[in-house]
Design a protein that fits this description.
It is a single chain. This protein is an alpha/beta fold. It folds into four domains: 30 residues, no CATH class; 245 residues, TIM Barrel; 108 residues, Sandwich (Jelly Rolls); 94 residues, Galactose-binding domain-like (Jelly Rolls, Sandwich), CATH 2.60.120.260. It has twelve helices and 34 strands.
């Protein structure tokens, strides 16, 4: 706050008037908070004719998706400024329930998850916002963004009006929505629309469910335009009265547009998710969409007078164990990169798609796009780090949660940890004693991968719960049933939890690490150091000769690596590094080359066009 003291009363009045005018225009047009008050706008985004209107004026949504939870907070401003410089006017973001409520009654909206700060930043930069709060969001996240503790209920029916689910949704919305209400357009904020759920038409198990979600939002104060979003063949079953239906697509098809207009005549047509690329799974190729294909589709969408949101404009990274899995045609886990072949790369670099899109939008906006483009962050190939210390998994067990004793195996979601909310991510070690040889059978009771020896030790990894489909209720991980020896169920298990939270990684620094032997045991942790002098730059971690595991830098979980590809490097943002010494810990399951490489360019693997 600035206080001006002017003795002359006439001057004081002039200054006061000037300041009031400046403040009025700043808050009226940017939608920023004003001393606890809000500018009241009467006419928000309307869909009552074939074109959107905002404040009764024709309005075209030129949107792009950037997920705050996939971008380091230090880079939020940079990424949003690049969006603005490209010619887009609207930011869209999903809200991941599982990250914001890791346990019942425990909520996290701080630092990296400060959604309110992210939306205020968008307003400051002159961007409108379409909020997509779920509760289910898909987005290639573990369980589609739903918290895994929901699965402790053996009768749970996700995405329905099953009481156990609706009670949990109400608890979540009670915390989330009141913080979003003041940020709505008609209250002076940037939120012009809110999406109900996501792609419910492809699920559609409960005809009352979308009505419940609509009421849950409106009863808590959401008053802006409501949207739903589905593929063309599920538009009808995914919609709800009082919400505008929008499309998801990768190519413009006249029949798709006609189908939407038949279901929803005399309303604006919007492509809520025009897919600028595609996601990648382990063991497959890196998917790309040719830049010419992308810009020609966007041009056609604009030519038809439609609004559009680019999914993704900037994908970012699924740090930690955030990634989910793909159910069909067979289970595959998503890679850690969420580059998505988007106009802005995983590390925020301009791509050919960005330049082509910017040129197109400049023509569409009649040259009004700012000529200034934010300067790119430097990338650096640091000296390799040699992992000089070693800690076997069994030596690290004293730092884990547990052990828990159980007669029978217990799945991850039901282990008695995290205030009895179960285990969400990571690995679980199950140990029992075998007194005789024989035939060991696990059936389909190991989810997803297990390594075994005798005391029988099964290290089971959650590679990611599937992100969509009709079997979300069945996505329990760990050992989900009996392990048979000579057709007799094994009993008396000791269960160790390796969720690999920051507190666990920090505790490992106190462990008795050993000098790296010639033939270390596996699975194991390996420690090394990266030296970054001056202001640290972005870099990319590469682990040739390593098999499969996870990487931590200064206790921050970068994500997973796997020799089967396609992803070959993990993005390491400069803000994650310290000037000077940085500690690296790698958990490797099977094989190691003991050296960690740092490169100045990403390697996402051999590419294949999106089909």
């Amino acid at each position: 706050m600035v206080v001006l003291r002017i003795r002359n009363s006439h001057k004081r009045k002039c200054v006061f008037v000037c300041l009031c005018v400046a403040v009025f225009f700043t808050y009226r047009y940017l939608g920023l908070p004003r001393g606890g008050q809000r500018t009241i706008r009467k006419f928000g985004l309307s869909a009552n004719s074939t074109q959107f209107t905002l404040e009764m004026q024709s309005f075209r949504i030129l949107g792009g998706s950037i997920h705050y939870f996939r971008v380091p907070r230090a880079y939020w401003r940079d990424r949003l400024m690049k969006m603005k410089a490209c010619g887009l006017n609207t930011l869209t973001t999903f809200v991941p329930w599982n990250l914001h409520q890791p346990q019942r009654g425990v909520f996290d909206f701080r630092t990296q998850l400060d959604l309110e700060a992210y939306i205020r930043l968008a307003a400051e930069l002159g961007l409108w916002v379409i909020l997509r709060p779920g509760p289910y969001i898909s987005s290639e996240l573990d369980l589609g963004g739903l918290p895994s503790w929901l699965l402790q209920d053996g009768s749970m029916r996700l995405r329905t009006t099953y009481p156990g689910f609706t009670e949990a949704v109400n608890m979540y919305f009670d915390k989330l929505i009141p913080n979003m209400v003041p940020l709505q357009y008609k209250k002076g904020g940037p939120i012009i629309a809110v999406q109900l759920e996501n792609e419910y038409g492809s699920f559609a198990k409960d005809e009352d469910y979308m009505h419940f979600i609509k009421e849950a939002l409106q009863s808590r104060g959401i008053s802006e335009l409501l949207l739903t979003s589905d593929s063309h063949n599920t538009l009808k079953s995914g919609g709800v009265d009082g919400a505008l239906r929008t499309l998801k697509l990768q190519k413009v098809n006249q029949r798709d547009i006609q189908d939407l207009n038949v279901i929803q005549p005399n309303r604006p047509t919007m492509v809520m998710d025009y897919r600028t690329g595609w996601y990648d799974v382990w063991g497959n190729l890196h998917h790309v969409l040719p830049p010419e294909d992308m810009v020609s589709t966007v041009r056609e969408i604009l030519r038809r007078g439609m609004s559009v949101n680019l999914y993704m404009f900037h994908g970012g990274s699924s740090f930690g164990f955030m990634s989910g899995g793909l159910a069909e045609p067979s289970y595959k886990a998503f890679v850690s990169s969420y580059d998505y072949d988007a106009p802005l790369s995983e590390a925020g670099d301009y791509t050919q798609k960005y330049y082509l899109l910017r040129d197109l939008l400049s023509q569409f906006n009649k040259g009004t796009i700012s000529p200034e483009m934010p300067v790119l962050q430097l990338k650096e190939a640091y000296e390799p780090a040699i992992t000089y210390q070693h800690l076997s998994l069994w030596d690290a067990l004293s730092f884990t949660e547990g052990p828990f004793k159980s007669v029978k195996p217990v799945n991850m979601e039901n282990v008695p940890m995290n205030n009895r909310n179960g285990q969400s991510y990571g690995y679980t070690l199950y140990e029992t004693t075998i007194t005789s040889g024989g035939i060991l059978k696990s059936g389909d009771n190991v989810k997803d991968r297990a390594l075994g020896q005798r005391t029988l030790s099964l290290l089971v990894e959650n590679c990611g719960r599937v992100h969509r489909g009709r079997d979300l209720d069945k996505q329990r991980k760990g050992l989900v049933g009996d392990i048979l020896l000579n057709n007799i169920p094994l009993q008396d298990f000791m269960i160790y939890i390796l969720e690999m939270k920051p507190s666990f990684i920090d505790s490992l620094y106190q462990a008795s690490w050993k000098t790296l032997p010639e033939t270390p045991s596996f699975p194991s942790f390996f420690m090394g150091q990266l030296f970054a002098y001056g202001y640290p730059s972005d870099t990319f971690v590469k682990l040739p000769g390593w098999e499969k595991g996870v990487v931590f830098i200064n206790g921050i979980h970068l994500g997973c690596y796997w020799s089967i590809g396609p992803q070959q490097t993990l993005y390491l943002p400069g803000p994650f590094l310290n000037s000077g010494i940085n500690q690296i810990i790698v958990f490797e399951e099977q094989e190691s080359d003991y050296k960690v490489i740092f490169e100045d360019t990403p390697d996402l693997g051999m590419a294949a066009d999106v089909q």
